[in-house]
């Protein structure tokens, strides 16, 4: 079955994917992302975007170096989230697509009542044909700021709404058997049927300068998603049009198949 038949999709973009090295937002890439996601919505998909980038955007806007203290991270997140959503709203509006912001903390996910409320809100937004844009509420969170650059949150979201497919767009092209930076001959895995301990052992990086999520957190997210019956793809976010290739079943990135019996 081609992934184009997968109707409900969660797409996660990391900080390093949507910002320049300076920390400022990459407007060209954000515009292309908005165009592609709007087009997928027009094609009949239910699309959710989990977007990092608040701290990076705040850092760029305030001309600050990478924050070291929790207070600095929270302040820059508060500034950057406004900037991030302003840009998203402007970009998506060009394609007659409405977006909605949801800021979530671990406490919301852990609480049965709050979790049901979030699910209900998302379901209603999708019925409105809006694209929910989800981020961790870094301005009030503590441990979540080092939660994995939203990798885990995107998997939890996919599980929460029974998504068909989770796509992690990042600065890596997929899962390699060894670190390609150390071994250029390392081969990329096209399909992973089970995220075993052997597969987990292939992860070893600690993430990018702008983000906090490395391959380990992506594989942990993959376990959450695949255990819930959701396929997952890790692919490069350099060009958002790769989403078309993924959904049309072309080989790109690494596909992690949902656990048998969970679909």
Automatic annotation (TrEMBL):
Residues 8-236 form the Aspartate/glutamate/uridylate kinase domain. It comes from the Bacteria. ATP binds at residues 12, 170-171, 212-218. Its EC number is 2.7.2.11. It is found in: Cytoplasm. Keywords: Amino-acid biosynthesis, ATP-binding, Cytoplasm, Kinase, Nucleotide-binding, Proline biosynthesis, Transferase. One of its GO terms (biological process) is L-proline biosynthetic process. One of its GO terms (molecular function) is glutamate 5-kinase activity. GO terms for cellular component: cytosol. The keyword Transcription does not apply. Pathway: Amino-acid biosynthesis; L-proline biosynthesis; L-glutamate 5-semialdehyde from L-glutamate: step 1/2. It catalyses: L-glutamate + ATP = L-glutamyl 5-phosphate + ADP. The keyword Phosphoprotein does not apply. CDD domains: AAK_G5K_ProB. Signal peptide: none annotated. Substrate binds at residues 52, 138, 150. Belongs to the glutamate 5-kinase family. HAMAP family: ProB. Catalyzes the transfer of a phosphate group to glutamate to form L-glutamate 5-phosphate. This is Glutamate 5-kinase.
